[in-house]
Input
Amino acid sequence: MARSTVSGAPVKSQARRSRALGRLVFLGPGLTYLIVLLLVPLALLLSYIPFRRGRFGGIVYELTGENFTRLIDPLYLDVVLGSLKIATIATVIALLVGYPTAYLIAQLPRKWKTIALVAIVLPFWTNFLVRIYAWIILLSGPGLVNSTLMDLGLIDKPLELLYNQGTIITGLIYSYLPLMVLPLYAAIEKLDPQLREASANLGARPARTFLSVTLPLTLPGVITGCLFVFVPSFGNFVVPELLGGGRSIMVGNLIRDQFLKARDWPFGATLSLALIAVLIVLLLLQAWSARRA
Amino acid sequence: MLQITGVSRRFGDITALSEVSLEIRQGEFFALLGPSGCGKTTLLRILAGFEAPDEGTVTLDGEDLLRQAAHRRPVNLMFQSYALFPHMTVAKNVAYGLEREKLAGAEIRRRVGEVLEKVGLDTMAGRKPQQLSGGQRQRVALARAIVKRPRLLLLDEPLSALDKKVRAEMQLELKRLQNEVGITFVVVTHDQEEAMSLADRIAVFSEGRVQQVDAPVELYERPRTPFVAGFVGANNLFEGRACSVGLASDGLGVLPGVSTLPDGTPALLAVRPERLRLDGQGVLRGDVVDVSFYGGVSHVSVRVAGRSTPVLVATQGATQVQAGSPVALSWSAGDGVLIPQ
Output
C-alpha cells in the first residue's frame, strides 16, 4: 500500500510532464513563428504610438497624445468611415451573391459538389496582384468591357469604369467571395434537409422556411463568412491602390502612406491600432455568437 | 378516404414503388410494413409531397393530393429523426405549424398547451430539443404533427429510436391518442410486432410491391404470398405441390393443409411453430437439435430427414423434451396454409 503511493506519485507527475512536453512539441513551431514574426514587430510598432515624428522622418521620443487626437480629425475619420462603408457594402453584396451559390452547391450530387468547390477556390491558385491587374485590363478605357459595349453599339464613348468606389467594391468582392462561400457551404451542408421538409410539412412556404429555419441555423456560417470578407477588405490597400486610382481612400492606403510617403511612423502605428481594435471587436462578436449557437 | 392508385416511382435503375394501389379508410390506423428499402418510406414521402410519383394518382377525400404543394396539404408527417427545430423551444416547435395558419396568439397558446398536456410534456414547454430524452423528443414530434389537426397523420418509423421499454409505453400512448383525436394514421415500420399491435390493417411491402393488405390476425393466419409467410412472424415453410389434402412434398410425403389451389400447383405449406405438436401420431419424425426457454414459451428445433432447415416448434411454458431425443411432429390440417409459389 505504502509502496504503491510512493511509486504512484512520481509516475503521475512524469505522465503530466510528458504530456506538457507533447503539447510544446506540437504548439512550439507555430507559437515561435507567431511571437517572433507577428507579436514582436507589432509590439515594436505600437510602441511608437505615444511619440511624434521627427522633421525628416524618424521618431522624436517625446511623449504626446496628439496621434489620438488626429484620429478624430475629419480628414482621417472620413477615411476610416469610408473604409468601413466600402468593406460593409462589399461584405453585404458578397453575402447576397455567396449564399445562393453555397446553397446550390450544397444541393449538388457529391461528385459535382467537389468540382464546384474546387472551382470556387481555383482563383487562389493565381497570384492576387495578377488577378487585380487583370481587372484593370478588363475595365480600362480601351479594355474588353468598353470595347465590347462599343462594338455592340450600346455606348458611343468608353465608360469610366476604373478608379472609383464601385470598382474598389467590385475588386474586393471578386477577391474575397470564395472566403464567403466556403463557410456558408459548410454551414448549409451540415443542415439536416429534413428540417426544411418538416417546415414545409407544417405549412410554411419556401420563403418562410428560409427565414425561420434555414437562415437562423446557418447564421454561424453567415457571420464567419462576413468576417472572412470584411476583415481583409477593411484593411486592404492593394485593391484601392490599383483599382481606386491610388488616392488615400481606405485605411490600408492611409497607413501605407504614413509609413512610406509621409514618414510618420507614430501616426501610422496609431491608425494600425485603430484598425486592429475594430477587428478585435468584430472577432469577439463572432466568438460570442458562435458560442450562443 | 385516401385512395392510392397505380403509383410507381423509379430512381434510375431502382424501382422504389411499382403500381402500388391502396385504399385507406377514415379514422383507420394503417401500417405500411416491410424490410428497409422496400419502398414504404418513398410512398410516405409522396403522400407528404416531398417526392412525386412517375405514374399513378393519390386522392384525399376525392381531391387530387399530388397537385397540391407540400406546404398546402392537410397531411402532417412525424419524421423518423423527429426533425425538431433545434433553435426553438418545445412550445415554439409545436406552435410553428399553427403560426403558419395565421391564428391568433391566444388561440395558438391554448392549443399548444392542450396538446403538450395530452402528450405529458406541459412542464417541458420552455426546453430546447437537445435538453430532452429520446422519448420526450418523440412526443414533441408527435405533438407538433397532431396540433394542426391534419386529416391524415403520417408516422415514419415513429418508435425505432426508442429503447424497448419506452417503446412499449409509446405504442400504447399512440393507440390511445389515435382513439382520442380520431385522425387517420398511416405508420411506416419495419417492425412487424409494432405493426401488428398498433394497426387496424397492414399492407406488407416487398421490393416496391404490395404483397398483401389485411388485418393483423388474417395476415398472420392466412399469408397469401411466400414473402408474407416468411416475413410476418416465424413460420415453417415446406415446398411441394398442392394436392386435395394438403401438400405433396418431394421428400416428406403428404403434409396436411387446407388447399384451394388446383392439384399439382407448385406451392408452399406454412405452419406456425405454435401450431405444431410434439406428441401423438406424427406426420413428421425427427431429432431435437436445440431447446431454448423464453419464460412464457419454449422453442424446440427439430431436424427432420429430407429437409435442410430444422423445423421450429413453440410450446407453452417449459418443455420435457431434450436435445437429441427423437420426436414426432403433428398439426391439424386447418393450421397448414397453402401458398401458391
